Amino acid sequence: xxxxxxxxxxxxxxxxxxxxxxxxxxxxxxxxxxxxxxxxxxxxxxxxxxxxxxxxxxxxxxxxxxxxxxxxxxxxxxxxxxxxxxxxxxxxxxxxxxxxxxxxxxxxxxxxxxxxxxxxxxxxxxxxxxxxxxxxxxxxxxxxxxxxxxxxxxxxxxxxxxxxxxxxxxxxxxxxxxxxxxxxxxxxxxxxxxxxxxxxxxxxxxxxxxxxxxxxxxxxxxxxxxxxxxxxxxxxxxxxxxxxxxxxxxxxxxxxxxxxxxxxxxxxxxxxxxxxxxxxxxxxxxxxxxxxxxxxxxxxxxxxxxxxxxxxxxxxxxxxxxxxxxxxxxxxxxxxxxxxxxxxxxxxxxxxxxxxxxxxxxxxxxxxxxxxxxxxxxxxxxxxxxxxxxxxxxxxxxxxxxxxxxxxxxxxxxxxxxxxxxxxxxxxxxxxxxxxxxxxxxxxxxxxxxxxxxxxxx
Length: 458
Fold this sequence. Notes:
Blueprint: H1 3-15, E1 20-36, E2 39-57, E3 60-66, H2 71-88, H3 112-115, H4 119-134, E4 140-158, E5 163-181, E6 184-194, H5 202-215, E7 225-231, H6 233-248, H7 250-254, E8 275-277, E9 300-304, E10 307-308, H8 315-320, E11 329-330, E12 345-346, E13 351-353, H9 360-365, E14 369-383, E15 388-401, E16 404-408, E17 412-417, H10 418-423, E18 425-428, E19 433-435, E20 443-445, E21 448-457
Parallel strand pairs: 7-14, 13-20
Antiparallel strand pairs: 1-2, 1-4, 2-3, 4-5, 5-6, 7-21, 8-9, 8-13, 9-10, 11-12, 14-15, 15-16, 15-17, 17-21, 18-21, 19-20
Helix pairs in contact: 1-2, 4-5
């Protein structure tokens, strides 16, 4: 769609009597390859193109979407959005859609080679992932996974003059490998993502997964007790996505279900820890120059040297607290990347944990009694207002004694408390990697150790 067509939609919304209006246009090209049983199961291409129209009347908000981009269809969609606004009633705290601000482009988030990839090239990448995992060892008995290659072209305009656009590319590859030896069975996971074809190593994904699976064989049961929990990035991402995120999203804070409630500008963790949301990192997944309302993004400290500094805001929830949006409005749907189908909601773009001064090996050597974990699952915030959570080790779990990795271990269930874990931080390594769990948030982080964590055999 052209700017002229956008402006005509906005002008039509104003003629209907709206106070404000916004048009969100997305053109998504996606190729997904699914793998199971060590083979390519399917390769599917999706071209998802559509518009989300939001209108505001007397502080009432309505939104409707359209896939048919004819003038008649878009005018009908605008009418539907206004009708929905009248039905919903006013949000008394509402102030205004964003005003125009200077947007600074983030470098290296678009690769023409990725945008031009066809199904054959995508299947070839997936095959290289599979072959590397299958060929790693005779003990490998099953390999499954997925590869998503997509391009998002987005344009946002509103009646206050916001006019921003951006095109980005992403490759997300994930492999799960099963290994077996004399009745012992184990699994491993590998993940890698990149905005560029050059930055994506399919063989690395397969090798990482197979290596974890093979080295997790002959797992043994260990006793319940307090352990130092050493979480590699992929495992840590489960905690940041499903436990920590809820504590810093403004909606949860306003609903008083954040374990950091009332602690802004107070110490909530060990002073060696800093956690940011950073969508400005050159070439990283989640990088974007503006959020899904057209607000410029920036590096936002959430915890800085142990101090709780900020919440994640979009425009709607920022107006409740008389604050400004932090550029964290996101619209997500069933497909990877951006979506035109949902209302904006405050969420992180890319969690970043500061790296430490020691290597991962040194962190392990400094551990007397611990569990090293590559992957956890079934991670839940049990009482989010307190920070209580539960999770279970799955893949790549090993007992550490007196600084040495002793043996792979069977699954352990962990019940603990996020503020307590953050306060009892035992160390941060320097092995930074970007990962994302299933339907979770991007995390760029090193291996981290939490001391005195309670674990029991499953």
